[in-house]
Amino acid sequence: MKKLVVSAMIALMAMGSSFAQKYALIDMEYIFSRIPSYEMANEQLNQISKKWQAEVDALAKEAKEMYAKYQSEMVYLSAEMKKTKENEILAKEKEVSDLNRKYFGSEGELYKKRESLLAPIQDEVYNAVKTLAEEKGYVLILDRASGVNIVFASPTIDVSEDVLKKMGY
Residue ranges per domain, the chain? Predict the structure, then answer.
């Protein structure tokens, strides 16, 4: 009987401590939209991306034109000339593929540029969230913009404005 009472008290204390934990929500999209340097970095990335995409598209157009010209001249070409033209077209298509991978691949120039421009801002937001959590005693802060299935959350637990204030915005 004594073990049952002790077990029940431990269970009640554990439940009580879990109810005492504090949770909060933030909206990272909202926070980032209020940081001018983040918006400028995104705009810069968009400009660079458009420029590089235009380069890739121009090269792809050249390859397409080479192929169209080859198709129209194919009946007049010798077997050796056909092979040469096909190799030129394949080389151009490989050049397009390589340039696309160089700029937009998983370790490409756009990824590196994004890391260099956005990572410091993201780190600053993370540090502000961490500091806020430590100061206010939050054990968990969720990002409602990250696609977590939050059906309803009281606006009173959204601390996005507090994060922005902590960062000086």
Answer: 21-167
